[in-house]
Automatic annotation (TrEMBL):
<keyword id="KW-0436">Ligase</keyword>
<keyword id="KW-0862">Zinc</keyword>
<feature type="binding site">
    <location>
        <position position="195"/>
    </location>
    <ligand>
        <name>Zn(2+)</name>
    </ligand>
</feature>
<comment type="function">
    <text>Catalyzes the ATP-dependent conversion of 7-carboxy-7-deazaguanine (CDG) to 7-cyano-7-deazaguanine (preQ(0)).</text>
</comment>
<dbReference type="Pfam" id="PF06508">
    <property type="entry name" value="QueC"/>
</dbReference>
<feature type="binding site">
    <location>
        <begin position="10"/>
        <end position="20"/>
    </location>
    <ligand>
        <name>ATP</name>
    </ligand>
</feature>
<keyword id="KW-0067">ATP-binding</keyword>
<feature type="binding site">
    <location>
        <position position="186"/>
    </location>
    <ligand>
        <name>Zn(2+)</name>
    </ligand>
</feature>
<comment type="similarity">
    <text>Belongs to the QueC family.</text>
</comment>
<dbReference type="GO" id="GO:0016874">
    <property type="term" value="F:ligase activity"/>
</dbReference>
<dbReference type="InterPro" id="IPR014729">
    <property type="entry name" value="Rossmann-like_a/b/a_fold"/>
</dbReference>
<protein>
    <recommendedName>
        <fullName>7-cyano-7-deazaguanine synthase</fullName>
        <ecNumber>6.3.4.20</ecNumber>
    </recommendedName>
</protein>
<keyword id="KW-0671">Queuosine biosynthesis</keyword>
<comment type="pathway">
    <text>Purine metabolism; 7-cyano-7-deazaguanine biosynthesis.</text>
</comment>
<comment type="subunit">
    <text>Homodimer.</text>
</comment>
<dbReference type="InterPro" id="IPR018317">
    <property type="entry name" value="QueC"/>
</dbReference>
<keyword id="KW-0479">Metal-binding</keyword>
Amino acid sequence: MKNEKAVVVFSGGQDSTTCLFWALDHFAEVETVTFNYNQRHSLEIDCAASIAEELGVKHTVLDMSLLNQLAPNALTRGDIEIEHKEGELPSTFVDGRNLLFLSFAAVLAKQVGARHIVTGVCETDFSGYPDCRDVFVKSLNVTLNLAMDYQFVIHTPLMWINKAETWKLADELGAFNFVREKTLTCYNGIIGDGCGECPACKLRAAGLAEYVAERKGAGA
Ligand SMILES: [Zn+2]
């Protein structure tokens, strides 16, 4: 795949930034695409743009504000609290969001001559998003190939690994400090280790602590 081109679905968060480093390691040419759907913090778009610039990859921002119209939710509307009740979908859920993102990414990828699409979806920390499951991604891959008569390959380097293993992957790619210091996962818009209080920060911190402990144990 070294002589081919890939488009990375990129939010500026830990997962997609790790995927971006993975893509840079695997492909000759890499571009990024970020979806703007009136996230709580336009800082998320700014963060993605500055990471792309620093890594020297083209960054396209696509307007997906129609998602806000379709499915008002906690990420796009400040008046709805972010909450995640046990056994229920989180209030940040937008039906079909990943379906739409991957489909638009594919249209863009074909336009720029890229066959490969890289996305950070993950079934291990599965929080109930049906269109982040491996079976869905494989199904969509077939559908996209038929829809556009093109041989896309969707890559999901994080599909079967947990948060600690995602930190490990970043480390193996030489990107541990970069991902830790420059990515934005926090719902309160704080880059790096974040606010420490929101669900996204807690998940990220737990994975980081687990990986750092494991790395110490290994004597690294
Ligand atoms: Zn936070």
